[in-house]
């Protein structure tokens, strides 16, 4: 792509930091090699075979993440996309299963695009350029890093059953009112549960005052499903 293309990279003169999550090693190596040789406007700083390898890397979050839809792990595509978005990364989901259901799940969770793995890589990267051309990247959050696994275990708040359930429902995308309905409790009760969750994370020196921060804490502690 020419340098005159209206992308974030061409406007700022820097490369877009990219990560790829795919558990198919041969495909991951192939993607990495192609991007390195043919997409100089992207800086592939992270290639991960597993979800934890991605989120615990010092290079995460990147500005853009390619995620394999059919990753053979218990973490759902919705949870993966939401966590990356909360960390400040845009997401493109790649899938060999190009169905309406798969596409809707990825896009509804916040992915910027859903692409078939059968597409030529040039088309995939053109889509990536279009996605990153929406904004300059200056406002992306780059200061967040997941805590090391040991630190997470030591500082994980002790939530009550009600607090944990409200937390899990809230970070799945429900509003506080919907959380109350799902739990069959009063709105104020659900609100209190969520307030206590935030307070307990704050006492553990793990900020959770905003929903994006709550999603990060949920991803770190296994509450995203």
Verbal overview:
The chain has 225 residues and is an alpha/beta fold. It has 2 domains: 125 residues, 3-Layer(aba) Sandwich (Rossmann fold), CATH 3.40.50.2300; 73 residues, Orthogonal Bundle (Arc Repressor Mutant, subunit A), CATH 1.10.10. The chain has 11 helices and 5 strands. It has a 5-stranded parallel beta sheet with strand order 2-1-3-4-5, sandwiched between helices. β1, α2 and β2 form a beta-alpha-beta unit. The longest helix is centred in the last third of the chain and has 17 residues. The N and C termini lie far apart (38 Å). The N terminus is likely disordered.
* Named CATH architecture of the largest domain: 3-Layer(aba) Sandwich
- CATH homologous superfamily label of the largest domain: Response regulator
Distance between the ends: 38 Å
What would the average pLDDT be, to the nearest integer? 81
Tell me the number of strands: 5
How do the strands of the widest beta sheet line up side by side?
Answer: 2-1-3-4-5
Q: Helical proportion? A: 40-55%
| Count of domain modules | 2
Q: What class do helices, strands and sheet pairing give?
A: alpha/beta
> What order do the SSEs take from the amino end to the carboxyl end, as H and E?
HEHEHEHEHEHHHHHH
**The CATH C-level class name of the largest domain:** Alpha Beta
Named CATH topology of the largest domain: Rossmann fold
Number of helices: 11
């Amino acid at each position: 792509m020419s340098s005159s293309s209206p992308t974030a990279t061409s406007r700022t003169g820097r490369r877009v930091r990219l990560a790829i999550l795919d558990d198919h090693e041969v495909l991951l190596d192939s993607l990495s090699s192609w991007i390195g040789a043919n997409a100089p406007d992207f800086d592939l700083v992270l290639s991960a075979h597993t979800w934890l390898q991605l989120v615990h890397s010092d290079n995460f979050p990147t500005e853009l993440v390619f995620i394999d839809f059919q990753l053979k792990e218990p973490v759902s595509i919705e949870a993966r996309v939401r966590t990356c978005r909360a960390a400040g990364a845009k997401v493109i989901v790649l899938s060999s299963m190009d169905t309406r259901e798969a596409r809707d799940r990825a896009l509804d969770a916040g992915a910027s695009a859903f692409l078939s793995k059968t597409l030529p890589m040039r088309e995939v990267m053109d889509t990536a350029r279009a996605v990153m051309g929406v904004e300059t990247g200056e406002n992306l959050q780059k200061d967040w890093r997941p805590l090391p696994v040991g630190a997470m275990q030591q500082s994980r708040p002790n939530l009550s059953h009600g607090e944990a359930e409200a937390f899990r429902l809230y970070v799945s995308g429900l509003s506080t009112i919907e959380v109350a309905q799902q739990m069959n409790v009063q709105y104020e009760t659900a609100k209190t549960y969520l307030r206590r969750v935030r307070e307990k994370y704050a006492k553990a020196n793990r900020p959770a005052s905003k929903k994006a921060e709550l999603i990060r804490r949920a991803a770190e502690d296994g509450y995203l499903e």
